[in-house]
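Risk mitigation, structural track. In case the binding assays with fe (ii) ion fail to produce interpretable data, a predicted complex structure has been prepared as a fallback.
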Amino acid sequence: MPEFADPFSGMIPRKMTKEELIRAIRLDLTAEEEAIHLYMAHADATDDPLAKKVLIDVANEERVHAGEFQRLLSILASDEDKFLEDGAREVDVMQAELSGAGGPQEELSTQEEVLQEPVEEMEITAGENNTGPSKNIIGARTIGSLID
Ligand SMILES: [Fe+2]
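Fallback model:
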């Protein structure tokens, strides 16, 4: 929960890098998803028709916000849509398997391809221009991009 008494809560003392912005938007997206869950749980937990209606309406507005953040991520992170499409295709394959339809053999996902590529290690020592997690580099990729 935010610390509303602290006027500096959530403030960052400098502008974010693009990678930091992408991570911040991912957190913003999860906050929208959390809000959707919270409002729907509260709507399910009441019999008051007006409260239920308002909670569901606000939950649906949060779904719109989630869509805005997802679209922003697609613009900021050039590979975002590829990963999302890979995930959607994997679910489609599973759905086809469950329905007995079979379907085409699934190709390796982008993440599986990335994890199979050899990773060249690069040593980062204290005192270098290491300003945070986005600088923890293994080869050309950040650790975060491998564990998303
Ligand atoms: Fe929202």
